[in-house]
Amino acid sequence: MNKQRDVSNSRAQAGLLAALSVASVSPALAYIDPGTGSMLVQMALAGIAGALFYFRQLRMAAGDWFRRVVLRQPSRVVAESNSDPLP
Amino acid sequence: MSGTFRDPSGSLFDADGRILRVIREAEAPAFRKLLDADVIRALVAKGALVGTRSLDKAGVPESLRVLAGEWFEHDRMGFVSVPAEWSAAMLANAALHTLDVNRELLQHGYLLKDATPANVLFDGARPVFVDVPSIEALQPGQNLWLARHQFETTFLLPLLACLDAGYPIQSSLSDPARGLSHEQLARVYGSRRWLSGDRIRHVALVAALGDAGGGPGNGRASQPNAPVGASPADFEKTRFVLNHSMNGLRKAIERLAKRIEQRHSHWSAYAGTRGHYADADLKAKREFVERVLQQTACSWVLDVGANTGEFSEMAAAHASVVGIDLDEVSVSAIHSRARQSKKPIQALVVDLSQPTPACGWRNTERKSFLQRATGRFDLCLMLAVGHHLRVTAGIPLEQILETGMQLGGGSLLFEFVPTPDPMFKAIARGREALYTDNTVENCEALLAARGRIELQSLLPNGRTLFWVRAR
């Protein structure tokens, strides 16, 4: 019974990792165990959040285009600077 | 002198009361830069993060100078508690504090690399994050919080287990770095693990996908490669994704915190049901305790059997207090009230008849409650608890008094409950004849042998209050 569960667990893991890994991965220097199951769930949530982020950016860009072109008002988007604001 | 060893970046030492940390040479410059960061200074200023400063090697005790690396000193916390002693309210408080600190760090380009209750200590009822080396710089594209798994197993799952299954935090956090695994809690829930959003998200799904078992990706802490030439937009996306992830955790903890507030137990409802104290008894008892608190110049008080925390709160007007009781629900209530009123009370779940043992590797990583308590307090209160220790726990009266005197640094306020007392008879259940040492004369003689009885008062209900001080 346990052996069957182990085999089907690793198949589920393999399938999900294959589906979710879209970029090459590199090992990070975390000394704590990040937990495979937790990571997979988090990767799925991160995928959803990433999509939400792009949707939000798209919506803001579309709104700004409408404001500039149709309503002829000044753009509200602050120009992106190239300097890294973070340490 | 042995220090901590789990974090590869360095070790922490308790050198005769000074909390010293050595950081490896390779990581010391980054650590010094971290201490200077605005966000760190701000967190220290508002008491959310422990104060840390650079230390010259000359300031390091000789026995430790041989260790390679740079030295730092931390502010010392008044009383160190271990997560196994925390109530659910305290654990939830520490969880939200960890998430708050992480969110603040994230805004400024940092992140916690681990998340366990062992990284939080309490100043009264106020949580303070103490594991400063746990803070590392955020990498763009780092869309996963690697410490999330540890946060779940050490904060969220023990809380769920405590509230849903009555599984004590003392058990799930016996190793505060490992906590309770998703598989263990899934087994406790059975098929009910699929019956709520929180349980599905945080227990069932993770347990179904396996946890450090066989399979690809196991053991590899993988992150997507940082895009070349990371821009502020990449950081913004990373922050958005991580905040989204942490908000889910935060909401789950907040839902649990609400449930914690609504609990009650036989002991937490005690104050309303104690018919064996008439108003006159309570008034006399309160006056006695207040007199002792005013006459003794104490700075730390231990309240054994704190129950509703009434006398802890009275003592908190004069000193810092640690209140202990074996009922977790009562301790949670004391903690919540102390947090709201900002009184210096640290309420812990400790059964004095079987106090927290020394734990960890070679039983030296976490000191026992008695080791931590010795020499800390200058008054010990043992109100309405002596008979529980005598009857329920079977500890002889002499040893109860001896321990009370030791814990109180030679000053003990003891409420003696005689055998004919209704509460004594209720717990003795017909076996009163066994407790031959339980007489007020014997109690008085035992106390007089250990110090001077400064104050003594017989309450109308037959109980006697003693305040004794070692000569």
How would you sum up this structure, described in words?
The complex is a heterodimer of chains A (87) and B (471). Chain A has 87 residues and is mainly alpha-helical. Chain A has a domain at 34-76. Helix content of chain A is 62%, strand content 3%. Chain A is built from two helices and one strand; from the N terminus they run αβα. Chain A has helices at 2-20, 36-70; one strand at residues 25-27. In chain A, helix 1 (2-20) packs parallel to helix 2 (36-70). Chain A is elongated and about 65 Å long. Residues 19-28 and 80-85 of chain A have low confidence and may be disordered. With 471 residues, chain B is α/β, with parallel strands linked by helices. Chain B contains 18 helices and 16 strands. Chain B has helices spanning 28-36, 38-45, 62-65, 88-107, 148-165, 169-172, 182-189, 197-208, 232-261, 270-273, 279-295, 310-316, 328-341, 369-373, 386-392, 397-407, 422-428, 440-450; strands at 10-15, 18-23, 52-55, 70-74, 110-112, 120-123, 126-129, 135-137, 222-224, 300-304, 320-325, 345-349, 379-382, 411-416, 452-458, 464-469. Chain B has a seven-stranded mixed β-sheet, with helices on both faces. In chain B, helix 4 (88-107) runs antiparallel to helix 5 (148-165). The longest helix of chain B has 30 residues, at 232-261. Chain B is globular. Residues 212-227 of chain B have low confidence and may be disordered. Classes of the chains: A mainly alpha (87), B alpha/beta (471). At the A-B interface, helix 1, strand 1 and helix 2 of A face helix 5, helix 8, strand 9 and helix 9 of B.
Topology readout:
The complex is a heterodimer of chains A (87) and B (471).
Chain A: H1 2-20, E1 25-27, H2 36-70
Chain B: E1 10-15, E2 18-23, H1 28-36, H2 38-45, E3 52-55, H3 62-65, E4 70-74, H4 88-107, E5 110-112, E6 120-123, E7 126-129, E8 135-137, H5 148-165, H6 169-172, H7 182-189, H8 197-208, E9 222-224, H9 232-261, H10 270-273, H11 279-295, E10 300-304, H12 310-316, E11 320-325, H13 328-341, E12 345-349, H14 369-373, E13 379-382, H15 386-392, H16 397-407, E14 411-416, H17 422-428, H18 440-450, E15 452-458, E16 464-469
Parallel strand pairs in B: 10-11, 10-13, 11-12, 13-14
Antiparallel strand pairs in B: 1-2, 2-4, 3-4, 5-8, 6-7, 14-16, 15-16
